Amino acid sequence: MSNIIEDCLEETCAISAHPISDYESELPRWCKGCGDFGVLTSLQRVLGKNNVDPENVVAVSGIGCSSRLPHYLNTYGFHGIHGRALPIATGVRIARPELKVIVTMGDGDCFSIGGNHWLHAIRYNINAVVLVLDNEVYALTKMQVSPTTPGGWQTNTTPRGNELRPMNPVSAVVGMTNVSFVAQTATWLPAHLDETMEKAWEHKGLSFVRILQRCPVFMPTAFGDGGANFPIVFLENENGIPINPVLLKRGPSQPHDHGNINEAQRVAATVDPAPMGLIYHNPDIPTYEEARFGRRSRPDHETFVRRLDEVMDRYAV
Amino acid sequence: MSGPNLLRLSEHIVEIVSDAGEGAQKAAISFAQVCAKAGNGLWTVEIIPSEIQPPPHTTGSASGNRIRLAQRSAVSNAGDLANVVFAFNEMALLSRLEAGSIADDALILIDNQWATHNMEAYQNSYRKVLEMVRSRGGTVMEIPLEAETLRYVEDPRRGKNMFAVGLLCALYNKNLETLKEVIQAVFKKKTRDVVDSAIKLASAGYQYGLTNFETRFDVPALPTDTQKVAMNGNTALAIGAVAAGFDLCSMYPITPATSASHVLSEIFEDFGGFVHQAEDEIAAIGVALGASFAGKTALTITSGPGMALKTEFQGLAVMTEIPLVIVDVQRGGPSTGLPTKIEQGDLLHALFGAPGDAPKVIMAASTIEECYYILSTARKIAEEFRMLVIVLSDANLATGQQLFDRPGVSKTPHQQPLDLSPVGEDALYYNWDSVTGLSQRIIPGQPGGMGVITSLNHDRDGKACYDSERNQRAHKMRSRKLAALQKSLHAPELHGAEEGDLLLVGWGSTRGAIEEAVDKARDEGLAVSSVCIQFLSPLPPGLKEIFSRFRKVITVELNYSDDLDDPLITPENRRYGQLAMILRASTLHDIDCYAEVPGRPFMPVEIYGEIQRQLNTGSTAKQPTTATANPIGN
Ligand SMILES: Cc1ncc(C[n+]2csc(CCOP(=O)(O)OP(=O)(O)O)c2C)c(N)n1
Ligand code: SF4
User: Fold this and answer.
1) What is the pLDDT of residue A4?
2) Is the pLDDT of residue B391 over 50?
3) Which of A9, A195, B83, B183 is the most exposed place for a label (fewest CB within 10 A)?
């Protein structure tokens, strides 16, 4: 009798929801306290919550600590080369629009070496969740300056302090044609991270999420000692990212119209306090797939052959 | 219409050149079409300025085509020196004289408006260039091209070319009705008025020719009962990609590769395919690789500078064993080099461009017809061996037109739906056969097959690992696939006898010119043969044995090599042609090379000269000698 119940339970579980463990693979090998753990867990939760079949998910990454993430996710994964995750992800989407695509990159990976692909991926607006785990440093290569390293900060390639001001990637993205989803969150705000991930998952188009990520090894004092003293403001909107009341201990909230591009650009340009939440959202921007697949149709074999013959006719002499 | 003034020829070479934008290209295409419809064998070569709007009336502005037409349907190369040139101005003509493309005794047709032009500089240079032509022994016929065209249209820049093509059709005894049909097809997107006026002009040119040429030429086509098509190599590649069942072409524009993607952009979607123009060549190969990872069949097409950008992704393709095809339509290098001109300078880059040991397959197309078929082979190898296949073409094949047997489409293989069947728990990402290195792909969507493929070294399970044993094994397995492929290749066939005094070894588009030169030498009793190598990695079996049957072996290549007569150059520091370098290393044979970078195809006569030099039978001059087609009949 108990066996029957167990069998039933197993069966219902199998059709209703994947447990988190379905998305777990080998043990993550990040340093203790690394913010990347939280992103992994959050992703596993959103996959479970949406009951996604792991075989229909492809996680693509570049090279960096953050790009190890696909190894720890029990989906299909492609751990590629530095800066080039987005072209690979674009290829997957073009080839197999039925697959769900997640891209994880570091700040150096995405904003520096992959900068060209980054801006153009926004313009293509492929349907994918694109996460940048921004620890404001090159970690895997052991602490060199990154485009988002704060001014004055010492790294191994800026021993006398970073002479340049950090770039504002969120502002850059909101300025890009065809931007459809931009959010910012942080690894030390797990509840907010989860809600952001959920929203990004729901969006049809390229969901760009900048995740401020703690790297206790190379940037222990970044983000105001790992978030403790980091000025933030939560963006408030009933269709935005829900703000759990406990979060308000971390910073105040302000109303924000994420559907208004001018508002979004103004908010994105603010770095102190850093805006947390949904900065811009336009679900009506056509995805690359929608914009470009209109004429594409796979004919049956006979039609294929006939059409090929017709093409040949044009060159017949 | 044949009369005593009709000279029968086995073949002839005509060039049509104008300022860029005056339509010599269109005239040439139309003329070539008329010849093709008449059944003549053809090879055409584009003469392209590097700029879109170069300053007019300069040598840099010369734009047009060379057309080699013959009685036989198989024409394998652009031939030697031109017999007839139709030039719209003397600077266009001068550029061809300077390029060494025109026979001394050629017939030159030229617009006479410059003789009396209100710019004195034009009058002078016109006179000078024509004097030069006459002093070389050429015949000049001045044509009132501008004046005649003005009788039919207001803007002669838009119409001279049609008068010219009419005139050429008369010169070559072609049918005016065929020309009219061709014009209608060429201008099918234009208005009725444009087509009518083009036909009027062409008819006027034709009439002018009939009245004014004392001698006309006839190159009657030999009868053939096979259907033919005429296209350039890029078009052949593009349609070949469709026929081979590719799903995606991901590219970034670069001369001379781009026109293949123009053709694909036009037709691919009707076959379920897709062209993605990426933000750069790195992204282009990345998108192709991503699509291929996801189970579709993808290629990326580029030229030298783009190849350079693709090298890191090449390494990734090799490391992850994702099938991928790259087409490199070579141009002159290094750097931006000669963007519109031919060179075979990328062989070593294709082989060694990616850092680390990255074994890959390299094939070269040697004719335009082969451009059509080569992608089917490339795809099969890429998928069966899970390998990167680089297909080399070049500017000569890309923009030249050739007549070849119409490919049959009935045998087009059925597209198989993706196999998304579940994968057992013990399935491995790289289940290498310990002998061949081959393994089965797992693609996203297959239940149970979840896992990561990585650019890091990995073992059979696909998981990253760093120890020496597993690194050595992974390298071995990737390399072994090349050996497995090599075992399935045949020794290449020789052109000419199986043994002799001299063997010419070529690859790619030089094949036609090499074989023509060999035929000529053999007709004169020289013991010369040639071989064209299609697989450059892995090399086909049997080369060493073949080489041992000849007293001397040289490669003939359109890439750079030091000349032993040059200052400072010794046998020790001499840099060889690229194939020569590979063959020397792999066969330990003392292979010499005739490797030059003229920026245009070799003429058979130049290769013939090299054969004579190598066998010390003739003059040692390197300059091409004048070659005229032998008139036959009459
Ligand atoms: C073409 C190339 N250049 C450089 C590197 C070395 N490299 C590896 S990761 C990395 C930067 C890592 O920083 P980031 O992208 O911010 O990721 P993190 O490690 O901080 O997560 C660099 C420069 C490389 N692998 N490939
Ligand atoms: S170095 Fe920093 S980013 Fe990398 S794993 Fe360690 S804590 Fe994380």
Assistant:
1) 52
2) yes
3) A9
